[in-house]
Every structure is written in C-alpha cells, then in structure tokens.
Amino acid sequence: MPDSEKIVIAPHLVFDAITAGAPGAPLVLLLHGFAESMHCWRAQVMAVGDAGYRAIAPSQRGYSPRARPDPRDFSHYLIDRLIDDAMAIVAAAGYGNARFHLVGHDWGGSIAWGIADRHHKRLASLTILSRPHPNAFNRAMATDGEQAQRSKHHKAFLEPDAADIVLADDARWLRERLAANGVPAEAIERHLAVLGNRQAMEAALAWYRARGAIRGPLGPIRVPTLYIWGDADDTVGRMAAEGTVDFIAASYRFEVLPGVGHFAADQVPERVCELLLEHLAAHPV
C-alpha cells in the first residue's frame, strides 16, 4: 500500500498525496485527471517506489480539501496556477531545482504538457496517458468532426448545474462513465471518496470553467516523451493521438493499448507500470 502524506506549499494550500520510495531518490511526480483522483496511480506509485524512485501522486487543487480556493472565482483554477502547484509540490518535497520525471493523465496530462513546454530543463522524462499534445488536439478539433463529438462533454461541464448532474442519483453519471471504461469497482469507490461531494466536484469543474473552450498552443516538446493511448478511448480519437508526434522535438514513443479506454492506469495497471518503468530507466535523471 502507498503511504499517505500532506504536502504544504502555502498556509492555504495543503495537498493530500500518496507516496512510495525513499525521499531523495529520483522523483517521479504523477498528476491525475478528471473524473478520478490521486488513487488512479496506486499501482504505478508502488511499482515506481519499488524500482528505486521516489513517487508522489498529489490530489490536486480543488480535489484536496485543504487546497480548495473558492471555485466561484475561476481565476484560482487557471492552468498557470495548476502548473505552479505542481512545481511547488516538487520543491516542497525536497527537490528544489533538481530534475525529475513527470507523468500525467487527462487534465494532469494537460498540466504535464505545459510543464514540459515551460520547464523542459527540469524534466528527465515525460509520460502522458490519453491527453494528446494540445496542438494536435486543436488541429483535430478543427478538422475532425469525430473529435468534436468526443469532446462535447467539455462544454457541458461549463453549465452552472453541471455538478448537480454529475452527482445526481449517487453519482450515477460518474459511476457509469468509469465502469464503461473498465475502471474496477473498488477504484471507483476510492475516486468517489475524493470527488463524490458537491464541494470537490465544483472545484474540479472549475478547471474547465477557468479554461473555457480555449486550449493555448504550445511549442515543440524537448523532453523524451512516452505517449500512451488506448484505442477504445471515448474522448480522444486516433487523429489527435497519432498527430502528437508532429509536436515532439525529442525521442518519442507512441504506445497504443488495444481495447483500452480513457482510464488506462486503472484499467490495465500492469501494462502501464511496465511501459512507465521502461521509459524511466531509459532516461535517468
């Protein structure tokens, strides 16, 4: 079982985290997405810790009860703040200006792409699950009607009653979405323990509301990158996934998981662990 810790980056920003491995060992920071929690990384945290790394998977801004600024003020949830949180967590964990490995899924992937764009010299490697490079996603949204259809829920999350809809009938929408993507029942319950209340859900949706429909373009990524995509992902189509290669200016591995949906870390944890450990070993700090 991973350890549970609190990481303080400011008096009003205290992040819950699951961790494994010895402090001071090469750091692997893992950033979760919506609609999951830090617990999506339980298997990977343990595998990475056992392999001699220091693994930290924080419950991010809004998901951690003591790092939940008022979600009615969307400026608290701008992606710049989310990126700054991640870098501050690295510093608070004792890694100062040291290089580290970064892993992100879904919204955590968006943050990870942004960190790789702005702080590439700090990263030894980048691993992304599901979320394509923003430029590839923007291109697919503009030219691929299928991708626009897959992403229509993003606009629904901007509606004022989105939290009520997602949490209605014992979070039926959330339960069904996760289950349909192969997330085990026990993992769903762990995620709902974090996200299945009005306060956390409003904060999680504030990420979408702060961004709106705009995804700013990034430059080419200059970090060794592993991109993992399940070909049954209901939110990311093949055009966006395969197009990510056009925006990587470093060594790149694109791994397609047949029959796997959006939440690969929960659905096929052993395969994700295997791929992640290979990538970390190939690009030491």
Write a structural description:
The protein is an alpha/beta fold and 285 residues long. Helix content is 45%, strand content 18%. It is built from twelve helices and eight strands. The protein has an eight-stranded mixed beta sheet, with helices on both faces. Helix 1 links the parallel strand 3 (27-31) and strand 4 (54-58). Helix 1 (42-50) crosses helix 12 and helix 2 packs across helix 3 (107-118). The longest helix has 19 residues, at 162-180. The mean pLDDT is 94.
Which labels suit this protein?
eight-stranded mixed β-sheet; single chain; 285 residues; alpha/beta
- Supply Rg: 17 Å
Q: How would you characterize the largest beta sheet?
A: 8 strands, mixed
Classify the secondary structure makeup into a structural class: alpha/beta
Number of helices: 12
Helix content: 40-55%
Strand arrangement in the largest pleated sheet: 1-2-4-3-5-6-7-8
In total, how many beta strands? Answer: 8
Q: How far is the N terminus from the C terminus?
A: 26 Å
Order of helices and strands: EEEHEHEHEHHHHHHEHEHH
* Approximate strand percentage: 15-25%
Summarize the structure.
Helix content is 45%, strand content 18%. The protein contains twelve helices and eight strands.
List the helices and strands and how they pair.
Blueprint: E1 3-10, E2 13-20, E3 27-31, H1 42-50, E4 54-58, H2 79-95, E5 100-105, H3 107-118, E6 123-129, H4 134-143, H5 145-150, H6 152-156, H7 162-180, H8 185-195, H9 198-211, E7 225-230, H10 238-243, E8 252-257, H11 264-267, H12 269-282
Parallel strand pairs: 3-4, 3-5, 5-6, 6-7, 7-8
Antiparallel strand pairs: 1-2, 2-4
Helix pairs in contact: 1-12, 2-3, 7-9
